[in-house]
Design brief:
The protein is an alpha+beta fold. Helix content is about 55%, strand content about 15%. The chain is rod-shaped.
């Protein structure tokens, strides 16, 4: 910058508000910066009374060496500013505004954790809705749909009456907000539907290394014996079929292909003699389960009680 230009910009005029022009302020700040970079010069000159004139003369030489002409009033302003610690940054005092500002500045650091927490909450809400809320809300309609399918399969009044009782139980539970009971009713109707849709033959088990019959001593009467013939369900194509069977010893319903049907001792002994004769059970048909019926048509005497483990 030429001396003429510098003089034109540092003539000491003030703006309409009585403040020094921006160029004067910038030059004063530069003077302070120059003085700070020369701490030894400042400490020597400012500590001596009446030496400011010498300090200003030295500053004139420093700026002239750079090709800059700085007016005396700017140098005086710079020296005064250095004494008063003007143009020195002082952090703001603690307060709500400062804390908020620091939070905003540090948003890149804590923002990702906040976003992650919000995302986790939203994901948890979505999972809860999809897994629990939506299915529970659909229970009444689901009960009605499965009931309709079940009744369409039923060929007996007993099967239709059972389906109706399960539907009523499920609807009552759903209306009262007992989703667990409503789901249990739905599972029971689905099990009934599966049972009614099945068609198979009950065949007495007769394979090497597998038992054809077993007996149990009941806990409530150790003097008695309960006899069971082991059967398997075979569909018209010869494939084994999984059947929902309720174990009379545990009360639990399981899907099995093989289970024991309770018989009297006479039937048990009759099957045993048939097998002992030549190792082959000639009369191996225990019954048939037509489609649409609740229970098979048994060819041998049985209570219908069953076991699933032996």
């Amino acid at each position: 910058m030429s001396a003429a230009t510098a003089e034109a910009k540092t003539g000491g005029e003030t703006d309409a508000g009585g403040r020094p022009p921006l160029d004067d302020v910038m030059l004063a700040m530069d003077v302070v910066d120059t003085l700070r970079r020369r701490e030894r010069l400042v400490s020597r000159e400012l500590d001596a009374a009446g030496r400011e004139a010498d300090l200003k003369a030295r500053l004139h030489k420093i700026y002239q060496a750079q090709g800059i002409e700085v007016p005396d009033h700017i140098l005086a302003e710079g020296v005064a500013a250095l004494k008063e610690d003007r143009f020195v940054y002082r952090p703001p005092s603690a307060g709500v505004a400062v804390r908020l500002a620091r939070l905003y500045v540090g948003r890149g650091r804590w923002g990702k954790w906040l976003l992650g927490g919000v995302s986790a909450l939203m994901a948890a809400w979505a999972i809860n809705y999809v897994v629990f809320v939506a299915p529970d809300a659909a229970l009444p309609q689901r009960l009605a749909d499965v009931y309709t399918e079940t009744v369409a399969l039923a060929k007996s009044d007993d099967a239709r009456a059972l389906a109706q009782r399960l539907l009523d139980t499920g609807r009552t539970a759903a209306a009262s907000g007992d989703a667990d009971a409503a789901r249990q009713a739905l599972e029971s109707i689905e099990t009934l539907r599966t049972s009614l849709s099945q068609e198979y033959r009950l065949r007495i088990l007769n394979r090497p290394d597998e038992r054809t019959g077993v007996w149990r001593i009941p806990d409530i009467n150790t003097q008695a014996r309960n006899y069971y013939i082991i059967v398997e369900a075979v569909d018209p194509t010869g494939r084994l079929v999984e059947v929902p069977v309720t174990n009379e010893e545990t009360g639990k319903t399981e899907s099995v292909t093989t289970w024991g049907l309770r018989v009297d001792k006479q039937t048990f002994d009759q099957v045993a003699r048939d097998k002992q004769d030549d190792g082959i059970i000639q009369r191996n048909r225990f019954g048939d389960k037509p489609r649409g019926t609740l229970t098979p048509n048994y060819a041998m005497r049985t209570t219908g009680g069953a076991i699933t483990h032996w």
